[in-house]
């Protein structure tokens, strides 16, 4: 593990208040009486809504189709019936269509052991398509579609893939808990990205205030044969 220096001069170092939640395990959110599902949960073009009032949907069903190069598919978080299609304002002030869903029926995935797909047999291009179809976006704030991030020109070489486990914002501990509880899944994701991007090196950045995460991720990195560094 390498340690990097903080700002040598100046800089603001507010209290992080991580101790309020960094020992709390990840828990499922409660199921509400209705879900409001925006058709814009990403930067770029909003989705084309694929459902209408009265439609029955299943958990994980595609209900919003990406409508441009910079766009991302949206899937239903629960089984249920579409109550209405309405307009809402997002936190950034933009207006978008939204599906109002009344949950009902049987959950196919929640709380179940899902058998992972055999991704090893897929090509890098096929994995890219799966990432696009899944509607995966970045969670750093811009919600940029991940498949676009991973589009590397044919004549280019990825020297380094940097995984951000810093989580420097005060109060936030979601990344911290994921590294503690889902470290094996994170490294499985890194295996997939290795096949997609073929980087020469992978770096995982973690702040010094997460020593338990550094230990867990560092041990797994050592098992990778030296290609991943924490």
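^ structure tokens above, recovered residues below v
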């Amino acid at each position: 593990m390498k340690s990097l220096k903080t700002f040598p001069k100046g800089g603001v170092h507010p209290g992080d208040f991580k101790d309020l939640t960094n020992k709390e395990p990840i828990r499922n959110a409660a199921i509400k009486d209705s879900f409001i599902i925006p058709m814009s949960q990403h930067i770029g073009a909003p989705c084309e809504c694929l459902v209408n009032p009265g439609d029955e949907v299943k958990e994980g069903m595609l209900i919003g189709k990406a409508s441009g190069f910079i766009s991302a598919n949206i899937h239903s978080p629960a089984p249920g019936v579409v109550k209405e299609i309405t307009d809402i304002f997002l936190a950034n002030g933009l207006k978008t269509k939204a599906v109002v869903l009344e949950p009902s029926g049987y959950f196919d995935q929640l709380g179940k052991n899902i058998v992972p797909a055999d991704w090893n047999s897929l090509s890098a291009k096929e994995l890219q398509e799966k990432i696009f179809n899944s509607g995966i976006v970045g969670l750093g704030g811009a919600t940029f579609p991940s498949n676009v991030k991973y589009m590397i020109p044919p004549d280019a070489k990825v020297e380094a893939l940097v995984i951000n486990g810093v989580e420097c914002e005060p109060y936030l501990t979601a990344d911290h808990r994921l590294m503690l509880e889902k470290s094996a899944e994170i490294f499985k994701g890194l295996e997939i990205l290795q096949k997609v991007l073929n980087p020469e090196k992978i770096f995982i950045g973690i702040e010094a205030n997460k020593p338990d995460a550094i230990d867990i991720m560092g041990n797994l990195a050592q098992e990778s044969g030296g290609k991943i560094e924490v």
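The two ends are 5 Å apart (CA to CA).
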